[in-house]
Amino acid sequence: MTLRSVHRHIEQCRLCPRLVEWREEVAAEKTKRFSDWTYWGKPVPGFGDPDAEVVIVGLAPAAHGANRTGRMFTGDESGKWLYRALHKSGFANRQNSEHVNDGMKLTNCYITAAARCAPPQNKLFPIELQNCRPFLLQEFQLLKKCKVIVGLGKIGFDTAFEVIRSLKKTDLVRKPHFSHVTVVPLSKSLTLIGSYHPSQQNTFTGRLTEPMFDSIFRAVRKELKAL
Q1: What CATH number did the domain enclosing 21 receive?
Q2: For residue 157, what are the contacts with CB-CB under 8 A and spacing of at least 6?
Q3: 2, 116, 139, 208: least CB-packed within 10 angstroms?
Q4: What is the pLDDT of residue 220?
């Protein structure tokens, strides 16, 4: 099993009828500002450095973001925030991720998500998260150099913890409390950090500011030096 083979399996998945119907409907109907695009319209695989020490776990693709472009956090407002922060902290070679051929490269960082299909109204059912869990388990099994995990939003944070617990890479039993810049030592060589998700719901309201988000990646750098 390789990351490439996991990505291929992700792209072919049709386990969740509601999500399949929605992602394909959005891809067919499009939105006016992207009417000239051929949408991806499939589950979105992870993206980044296979030797990454830092793994970021988001929620799910945006309907007109990754569901359009085929790359995690690419083509939407959340992605603008994430890649800008990754570029500032030295994990990305560009601050804007616009399409899969834009030259974006991640160094020592890999981006994945709790779910791989764009959900209606950004709401996922528990069974849909459960159906996607094996893909995340496989990715973490293959990302052998991972030292720091960033969970974006409570679902990303909780899902990352549950996967690490399932893989028996932590002795913690209770799910840790989520808050912004929560730093949770999972083991002597693995740390989980919580962050508010850079969604418009958080960034437009001021719940998450640029300095607050930048502080996450300063914490990541600090943990990498300590581990």
Answers
A1: 3.40.470.10
A2: 57, 151, 176, 178, 182, 192, 194, 195
A3: 2
A4: 97
pTM of the model: 0.96
Domain tally, the chain? 1
CB contact at 8 A, 73 and 59: no
- Range of the structural domain that residue 173 is part of: 3-226
Residues 6+ apart with CB under 8 A from 35: none
What integer is the mean pLDDT of 78-106? 96
- pLDDT value of position 227: 81
Q: Which residues contact 112 (CB under 8 A, 6 or more apart)?
A: 46, 47, 55, 56, 57, 58, 72, 136, 139
Angle at 197 between CA 194 and CA 198, to 5 degrees: 130
pLDDT in tens, 178-193: 999 999 999 999 999 9
Q: Are the C-beta atoms of residues 172 and 165 closer than 8 Å to each other?
A: yes
Task: Return the H-helix or E-strand segment holding 6.
Answer: helix 3-12
Q: What is the pLDDT of residues 100-115, one digit of tens each?
A: 999 999 999 999 999 9
DSSP 70-117: SSTT-SSHHHHHHHHHHHHTTSBS-S---STTS---BSSEEEEES-SS
Q: Which residue has the tokens 């991806």?
A: 40
